[in-house]
Amino acid sequence: MQIRELTEADLPALLELCQATLPYDAFTLPLLHRRVFDDPEPVPSYRLAAYTGSRLIGAVIGLRRAAEQPPAGGILLLVVAADMHRQGVATQLLDELEQRMRADGLHSISPGGNGPNFFWAGIDMRYTPTYCLLVERGYQLTDIRVNQKVDLRHRDWNTAVEETRLAEQGFTIRRLQADDRAAFSEYMRQHWSMNWHDEALIAYKNTPITAFVATHQDELCAFAAYNIEGFAGHFGPTGTNEAMRGHGLGRILFYKCMADMLAQGLERAEVVWVGPIPFYTKIADAIVHRAFWAMNKQL
Asked: Could you tell me the end-to-end alpha-carbon distance of the chain, in angstroms, rounded to an integer?
């Protein structure tokens, strides 16, 4: 087995490997390219591929998050061919990745949830062998995170009546526009975390822009975005300024995103890394759909 840096030429083989071994997720070539090669802190030496001859049998994609104090490492993706399980492939890939991170001065590593770029909020509980491997390697459980599923076909997402009512109070609900970028960036910096700032601006990479905002007297006061993290149809992040809560802005912006996804032909959406589970159940009949182990290891 040879371990080398993964390149863009390896992506078709990586896509085939992911589609064959990670059945709960809808991988595509453009999505893989964005996640693997368009990270805001690219570290090519953390993208590792394992080959036997000309066959890709495994890969691990590591991340660096220098903004964290101290700087931390992450795992975007770990995948091994089904017929190569329990043959040391994942172990050797992780050994190499962790060694490189230590050499770069990183002090910890977390699989999943490494915003602003991740597939999953942690280790999907249905991928249990991965969890077991990480436990054996000294990774510690730190949290349980969940996604909620929304059926887009069985609800009316129209908000025209509510938008008219809000307009009388000085509110406007609209899609984020290209010329909003500077103001939106400043708004996110002032009111939300830098991680959410970076995530929300990813909406500009999509066509159409996959974010809606609320303004009050022309000042931004709430936002909601989708197709930022994870896979197609994933919703979040979203937030409403504390002083503007109670007007239903969060629900209306959520509905705008749901209507947008339905118009694009999607039948379901997934709210990622949910905080207020009852909120989404109440407004959208959302059910807990996926659960993840959040883990961390000191290097």
From this structure: 25
10-residue mean pLDDT series, the chain (299 residues): 98 98 97 97 98 98 90 97 96 98 97 96 97 98 98 97 97 98 98 96 97 97 98 98 97 98 97 96 97 98
CA distance 228 to 232: 9
pTM over 0.85: yes
Q: Where are the domains of the chain?
A: 2-111, 150-291
CATH topology match: 2-111 vs 150-291 = yes
Domain 150-291: CATH superfamily is Gcn5-related N-acetyltransferase (GNAT) (3.40.630.30)
Architecture of domain 2-111 in this structure: 3-Layer(aba) Sandwich (3.40)
Instruction: Give burial (CB, 10 Å; 0-12/13-18/19+) of 175.
Output: middle
- C-alpha to C-alpha distances, 139 to 68, 108, 135, 221, nearest whole angstrom: 19, 10, 5, 39
Give CA separation, 271 vs 124, 145, 190, 211, in Å: 15, 11, 24, 14
8 A C-beta contact, residue 46 and residue 17? no
Question: Which of 154, 75, 147 has its CA nearest to residue 111?
Answer: 75
